[in-house]
Predict the structure of PHP domain-containing protein.
Amino acid sequence: MVEFQKLSEFFFEFIESDFKYAGDFYYDLHLHTTASDSFIKPEFLKSFTDNKRYLLAVTDHNEIRGAIKVRELGVNNVPGIELGCEDGFEILVYFKTMELLEEFYKKEVEGYKNIKRMAKTHRDIHEYLELLKDYQCHISIPHICGLVQKNFINNKSYIYDVIKKVDSIETHNHALSEERNKIAAEIREKYNKTATFGSDAHILRDMLSYYKYANHELKNGDKILDYLFKLGSISGIGQKHILHMLKKHE
């Protein structure tokens, strides 16, 4: 379940709404473009949001070119970034203006990137939380019950301290199971946080599947096919990470 009713007022001004499209709403605060490890082009996001009500945030890994390009194409996306820390912890950070996102990126991210790992920087979460106090922004913890190294609840001893210092918990990540998302929603409720939600899309099918889910159109058979496509995309996403590493050493 997408907890749209728990969304912070921070995002309200970014909702593009035309009542003639009242039944066609796409709300996605976590997706990636070709600027990082995704195969989704900004031009597709432009065509996809045409004739829809939407709330959209491009949140590439330690990168903002995708968000800027989408805005240049005329899509009113929330200026955002998925910020990766040195131990693998990630946070979604949203800004009120693209200028603030660019300022933060150039001062606090660009020069601290880990050239071997696209999703990491050489700074820790506590340092970033302190730096972000100087910006008008909204911070959310994504995939809090994620898989492997992203399973923050089990693996990060400092997680409960971080929860107290952020604004939201991502309570629907479409790459995760309903069970894991339900636990995230329970954590959000326990700590009285607002909610974010999104596809965490890296391929077009991720976006389309989440769109169907959010509009109550996803069928059981679709879920099986989505899972198979997801398995097929993992190697391609991995190759993008490897190419990123090799490119930095050219």
